[in-house]
Amino acid sequence: MSSFFSTTAEQRMKRAASERRREYNEEQRDEYENYVEEDRNEINERTRVMSEQLREYHYDGLYPRLRWFH
């Protein structure tokens, strides 16, 4: 009978450890996804600003803007 209780306790401990590991991995994944999203947003913003500066630099005063780069 005592081996049954020790086996049950062991299973509970394994389940608890597995749950903690799952929560930790989920938290790490969420942090990484947030980092990647912020980084991507920053890169997109820099690209947008650079494109806008190039358009202003190359704008020849004609409407509509037929050629951006010439």
Automatic annotation (TrEMBL):
Chain positions covered by the region annotation Disordered: 1-33
Predominant subcellular localization, coarse grouping: secreted
Tree of life domain: Eukaryota
Compositional bias segments (type: Basic and acidic residues): 11-27
Keyword Secreted: yes
Database matches in Pfam families: UCMA
Composition-biased stretches (Polar residues): 1-10
Location of this chain's protein in the cell: Secreted, Extracellular space, Extracellular matrix
Record keywords, A-Z: Coiled coil, Extracellular matrix, Secreted, Signal, Sulfation
Keyword Secreted: yes
Role, per record: May be involved in the negative control of osteogenic differentiation of osteochondrogenic precursor cells in peripheral zones of fetal cartilage and at the cartilage-bone interface.
Family affiliation: Belongs to the UCMA family.
Protein name as annotated: Unique cartilage matrix-associated protein
Organism for this UniProt entry: Ilyodon furcidens
